[in-house]
Amino acid sequence: MAEPVLWLTEQDVVSLITLDDAIEGLEHGLRALGEAKGFNVPKALGGWADGSSMHSLGSALPGLGYAGFKSWVNTKRGATAIFTMFDSNNGALVAVMEAAALGQLRTSAMTGVGTKWLAPKDASEMALIGTGAQSITQIAVINAVRPLKRLRVFSPTAEKRKAFIANARSKFGFEIVEADSAQAATDGAPIVTIVTRATEPFLTANMLAKGAHLNAVGAILPANAEFAQDVFARAGIVAVDDLPNVQKSSREFIDYYEKAGRGWASVRGIADVIAKGDGRPAGCDVSLFKAVGMGISDLSMAIMALDRARAKGLGRSMPHPVRAIPTWKGAPKT
Fold first, then answer.
1. Residue 145 · residue 26 · CB < 8 Å
2. C-alpha closest to that of 57 among 46, 69, 75
3. Model pLDDT, residue 334
4. What fold, for 111-290?
5. Residue 227 DSSP one-character state
6. What's the confidence (pLDDT) of residue 330?
């Protein structure tokens, strides 16, 4: 008998997966992608006049037996994300998950994976620019792969910055200091993570220390940009989570590689880096990792959540869809 269709809530998801688990699960999915055992469906994106947008990301890992889509609508008055998961062998619906926490887990875990493979091995200090909803978990995943001794934090609104730092100090045991500018935060830092909604670049190449690793994870729409074009010139390796989505969504990359006619050949997918096991090149001045979101990362989290939910008996069972024949006016009654 087929397993029941499961509905998993946000609370179910966070009870089943920690950030540390998410890094491991995502790396597993990315390795399968790098070995051509899975694929992504490029993001579908639409928007309307008030800045609202709708998105859908798909992917499949047939070797693991699953395919799925995360879909969401984001407005100024709220947002909802849902992940629908299918059996790739027979097309059956296997789960529907509330996906805001799922998205935060995979977004943060992706930064952790990028940092694990590209940042200097001995890095123990981080600069964080941006103190929004994603920022606290960005700290946690960096600390999971490069144990931190010191964190510097900057965001433009002093009140929000101070409140964020107080919260971070309650959650982490390392030193956390307030910076009064982006320059002060990044000065000499071996790891820099920018996670903002900036519409104009604020981070320039001269703000990055020699040997630094940059995670650029905030600007995921073409209207946004966080770092200046001169950062690319210093980058010894440029890696992304998913090239087709970056080509569609990242203004920074579109301007440098497409509009300037440089071509995309030098940009690597992090899945390829993992599959080949080569990581940060020797003597690298700056490493750059850009993440905008992709289906495999969501699917990797969803597989982990589903397997654990079944093992623990969590989730609400729903009936499998049963096909019905459409009717029309004047059709004979049966």
1. no
2. 69
3. 62
4. Rossmann fold (3.40.50)
5. B
6. 82
**pLDDT-flagged residues of the chain (< 50):** none
For 184, the token pair is: 């002060």
Q: pLDDT tens digit string along 50-94?
A: 889 999 999 999 989 999 999 999 998 999 999 999 999 999 999
Whether this prediction's pTM lies above 0.70 is answered by yes
**270 CB-contact burial (10 Å; exposed 0-12 / middle 13-18 / buried 19+):** buried
Q: Look at residue 87 in the predicted model and tell me its pLDDT.
A: 97
**Could you tell me which CATH class the domain 5-103+295-318 is placed in?**
alpha beta
Token pair recorded at residue 192: 């820099």
Three-state SS sequence of 82-142 = EEEEEECCCCCEEEEEECHHHHHHHHHHHHHHHHHHHCCCCCCEEEEECCCCCHHHHHHHH
C-alpha distance from residue 213 to each of 60, 107, 190, 327, 331 (Å) = 30, 17, 6, 60, 67
Written as six digits, the tokens of 236 are 């010894």
> pLDDT at position 99, please?
96
Residue 74 has, within 13 A of its CA and on its CB side, a CA count of 11
**For the chain, which residues make up each domain, given as ranges?**
5-103+295-318, 111-290
Q: Annotate 248-304 with DSSP letters as a single string.
A: HH-HHHIIIIIITT--STTEEEHHHHHHHT--SPTT-SEEEEE----HHHHHHHHHH
